[in-house]
Amino acid sequence: MAFDYCSRVNRLPPYLFAEIEKAVAAKKQAGADIISLGIGDPDLPPPKFVLRALAREAKNPKNHNYSLSQGEPEFREACAKWMKGRFGVDVDPKTQIVALMGSKEGLANVARAFVNPGETVLVPDPAYPVYGQGAATLCDANPVPFPLLEQNGYQVEGDKLPSSGARMLYLNYPNNPTGAVAKGGTLESVVEYCDRTGTVLAYDNAYSEMTFDGYTAPSILQLTQNALEFHSLSKTFCVTGDRIGFAVGHPALVDGLRKIKSQIDSGPSVYVQKMAAEALGSYSGGQRPKEVEKMVREYARRRKALVRGLNKIGLKTALPSATFYVWTRIPGGDSISFAKKALDANVVVTPGAGFGSAGDGFVRFAVTQPRERIMEAVERLAAIV
């Protein structure tokens, strides 16, 4: 018997990271020594105090019941306290925060709450694929890209967005995949645009804590309350597999997302939320805890080593101020062909084309390997550049 996918699924391109995982698995099965700089999954362990909290809370039988659809009060209160200490933003944990099973599901589900079939969703290009695919396409909406260009530092130009506005606009700084940070007036121009056109602003701030060289990432809620901001503990505390994050912002946007989630999931595990509350509580105002500072310093060193190595072999690469990604232009302009050649050399990189048409001609490296492995990867790539 044949089973046909629905039309919205047929419109989805292959999910890039799943395709990379398949190719890498085949190489490993053949016995290859693979150096993976592709998917952004931290190789560093979670802080010991986080693991202790997780073990303690998991041992409590009461923490294995269903959680509240909006998230446990203890977790939401910790999120509100963290937002105040980190960004100076006051939010009500009862009405302005909802717990997420990682920010990815929240970014996708918010569109289900506010976007109708056929409506326009503005997405950066290049961008995390979930905005255009997991959100817009799976809501039968129309994802319309706006370019982030190398020549202007990958900044959004608010005056070049559609004058009629859109139903929703996704924005992400510090940026995946480019590593760019928002500069002089970029966020202000987008906030003004969304307020003027009535466009819902979904702000992905998953990399706010992975910043280098004295740079501190802002919250969009420092500029407006008419937005929904998404945070994740995945990268900050190296707990990608535990799936915990939160959305914070305008009460109506939070409530819309909560209504969707109440119909389709039962929220993050209670014991994971309690671990996450302790993790967020490790901050001292806006100061990262020493365990996170140590992790950030290590990624900063790896980032410098990789950028230095890439420039040495002829790949002109700028030093990013945030994220654990390095974005570089490659010769020939065909990112998928370059990624295949890199895989032939047993190095995994992510082709920029997977992030949108404006990403072709670039590849993304994730510095989620020890420095010596990163430098070995550069040596292997030197043969194909």
Describe the model.
The protein has 385 residues and is α/β, with parallel strands linked by helices. It folds into 2 domains: 15-44 and 289-382, Aspartate Aminotransferase, domain 1; 48-280, Aspartate Aminotransferase, domain 2. It has 12 helices and 12 strands. β5 (168-172), α7 and β6 (200-204) form a beta-alpha-beta unit. α4 packs parallel to α9 (270-280), α5 (103-114) crosses α6 (130-136) and α5 packs across α8 (251-264). The chain is globular and about 55 Å long. It starts with 6 loop residues before the first helix and ends with a helix.
Tally of alpha and pi helices: 12
Rough outline: globular
Proper CATH architecture of the largest domain: 3-Layer(aba) Sandwich
Give the CA-CA distance, first to last residue: 48 Å
In the predicted model, the low-confidence regions spanning at least 5 consecutive residues are: none
| CATH topology annotation of the largest domain | Aspartate Aminotransferase, domain 2
Assign the structural class, choosing from mainly alpha, mainly beta, alpha/beta, alpha+beta, or little secondary structure. Answer: alpha/beta
Q: Percent range for helical residues?
A: 25-40%
The arrangement of helices and strands along the chain is: HHEHHEHEHEEHEEEHHHEHEEEH
| Number of structurally distinct domains | 2
Give the arrangement of secondary structure elements:
Blueprint: H1 7-10, H2 16-29, E1 35-36, H3 48-58, H4 73-87, E2 97-100, H5 103-114, E3 120-125, H6 130-136, E4 142-147, E5 168-172, H7 186-197, E6 200-204, E7 228-232, E8 245-249, H8 251-264, H9 270-280, H10 290-312, E9 325-329, H11 335-344, E10 347-348, E11 350-351, E12 362-366, H12 371-382
Parallel strand pairs: 1-10, 3-4, 3-5, 5-6, 6-7
Antiparallel strand pairs: 2-8, 7-8, 9-12, 11-12
